[in-house]
Structure formats: C-alpha cells, structure tokens
Amino acid sequence: MSRTSADASQKTIDPAVLEQASLWMARLWSDDISEAQRDACLAWRQASPEHERAWQQLQAIDGRLAALPRHAARSELFSSSQVSRRGLLQWGGLAVLLGGLGFGLPRTPQWQRQFADYATGIGESRELTLSDGTHLVLDTDTAIDVRFDAHQRRLHLLRGGVLITTAKTPDARAFSVMTQEGLSYPLGTRFSVQQHSDSTQVAVYEGRVALERRGSDERATLDAGQQAAMSADGVSPPAPLEPAGLARFQGRLVAEGMRVSDVVEILARYRHGVVRCAPEVADRRVSGVFSLQDTDRALASLADALSLKVVYRTPLWVTVASRNTHEN
User: Fold this and answer.
1) Among 153, 157, 237, which Cα is nearest to 193's?
2) Sequence-distant (≥ 6) Cβ neighbours of residue 198 within 8 angstroms
3) Helices (H), 47-81
C-alpha cells in the first residue's frame, strides 16, 4: 500500500457515515435483497469519497473476521441463534469491532445508544421520570447517562436532545447537564439541551438556566423564552426561542418559511437510511406542520405543499425533487 493510501485509510470517518455504511451492509447480507437495493447501495457509496472509505473499512473488518482461527471463526459467530451477521451490525456489535480497530468506539452512535443509561433509536422518543422527580423526554437518536450521588444530580447528554422539567420537590443537591461544550445549571425550570457535532444548543421554556463553558470561567444566564449555543468559540448571545423547538419533543416539526433542504435534513434524523434534497428545490420555502413520527407522511405532505415529488429508490434511499426532474 502506498503512503498516500495508508494516510487516507487513517482519516477519521464521521460516525454517522459509518452507521449508514453498516445499515447498507446489513441490508446486503439479508436474504431478500433486491437488485434495486443493490443499485441504491452502490449509488450511496459513489455519492461521496467518505462513503466509499467507510464501506471499504467495513469490508476490511469482514475480511479480518474471515481470517480468525476456527474456534473464533466468523461462520461460527454468525451462525449463532442469538447473534446474526446482520444483527451484529444493527445492534452495535460492529461498534465493538470498530473500536478494536481504533475507530473511536465510545463516539459511535451504536456504542452510545447500547451502553447509555437511557437511549432512543432513530425515529424513537421516550419519556421517563428520574428518582428525584425530574421528567425527561428523549428525542430521536439520543443517549444519556444519569449520575446521582449524595452531592450532585448530573445528566451527561452523549448525543441527541432532551427536554427536561426539573423536579418541584426541593433538593439540596445541585442539578446539571453536561455536554461536550460545558455545563447547564437549571434554576427551577423547563428547558431543552441538544448536542450537535460542534456545539450545544440550550432553550429555556420556564425559569432560568446558567451556562458554563468547558475549560472557561465564562458563564451566561438564559431566561424563559431565550436560547443560546455553547461552542469552542464561546457562548452565543441569547436569542428568542424558535417556535419549532418544543414541538419536536411532541413529535411535530413546525416550519415557518423554512427551506426545503432544512426540512429534509430534520426529517432525515427521524428515519434510517439516506434522505436527500435535489439542488433545484433546496432553497424553496415551506410553512406547515409535519409529523416526525411518520416521516413518509411528512415527506408526502411536503411534496403536496410545493408540487414536488418524493422518489423512493428503496425505503433507505429517498430523494425530494422537482416534478420536472427525471430520476433514474
């Protein structure tokens, strides 16, 4: 292997891309795969160099399994009645293999969802009440750890988003939410925290929340009706709440003059596979309420509102395009 090829193989791959690759590979391993789905998988691989790198790394793992000694052979592992080869990818076994090969195991979505205290899969939501009476609503693709002890009550948001209504009962232990960018301290409140790839978004619906950026003495306070973001560059100035923020935790996307590409991007978080928007319709604007619990219905509503079309190459490969555009 050339030095250039070796360097390329060591580049960090977005965990979301690895997850998409694992879904495609799991689909190809199934017994009912169709030629159209094979073509859609190939199209996904060809859509981006990173997609192809992720695919090749998974193929390399498959090859390493094939080379295992007989007592640990791939055929024995996947012939188990409890673990299928396809299931290994889907429930997170692939994350174990990726971690063993240096792909950042704790950062993979599969690992975080599998081993967090509480988690939701793609398209799922969950409500729960903690031991102190705090109520949580977990958004799609969310993982959270809970650390309560004699001195503090801390939630660690590993990925995704959570709506928090703090307990009404007085508790001397400080309550906080930790993300990659820092800590959020609620002061008797209802608020949401979203972990993005490079920032934390906090929105306050009742009460107040203090933000403390990691590695800094910088601190800001948000009042009800305000939101702000924490990142490596600092805490953004408080801004008015977006009307769509709270609705997402209720299973709805409220769009007010929203770009089609932004609507599609949000809907994509709530379903498996790839949902893309054709460039010619990306900047068109739409207003309406769309279901996050039934994304097929939401896509159909979006298409009806703007006279677009939704093209399903497979259930895992969907494109929103102009009705005048020819799709192969």
Assistant:
1) 157
2) 231, 232
3) 49-66, 74-79
| Secondary structure class of 225 (helix, strand, coil) | coil
Contact 95, 123 (CB under 8 A): no
Yes or no: say if 13 and 53 are a contact pair by the CB < 8 Å rule. Answer: yes
Strand partners, 318: 275, 312
In the chain, where the domains are located: 3-115, 118-242, 251-322
Does this model's pTM top 0.70?
no
pLDDT in tens, 47-74: 888 888 888 877 766 554 444 443 333 3
CA distance 183 to 173: 15
One-letter amino acid for residue 172 of the chain: A
The CATH number of domain 251-322, selected from 3.40.640.10, 3.40.190.10, 3.55.50.30, 2.40.160.60:
3.55.50.30
Nearest Cα neighbor of 282 from 321, 311, 314, 253 is: 321
- Type of residue found at 66: A
Of 42 and 12, more confident = 42
Residues in the chain: 328
Q: Tell me, yes or no, if the two domains 118-242 and 251-322 fold the same way.
A: no
Q: Give 118-242's CATH code, choosing from 2.60.120.1440, 3.40.50.300, 2.170.150.40, 3.30.465.10.
A: 2.60.120.1440
Q: Which residue has the tokens 């703007």?
A: 306
Task: For 211-266, write each residue's pLDDT tens digit.
Answer: 999 888 878 999 999 999 999 889 999 999 987 788 999 999 999 999 999 999 99
Asked if the model's pLDDT at residue 82 lies above 90, the reply is no
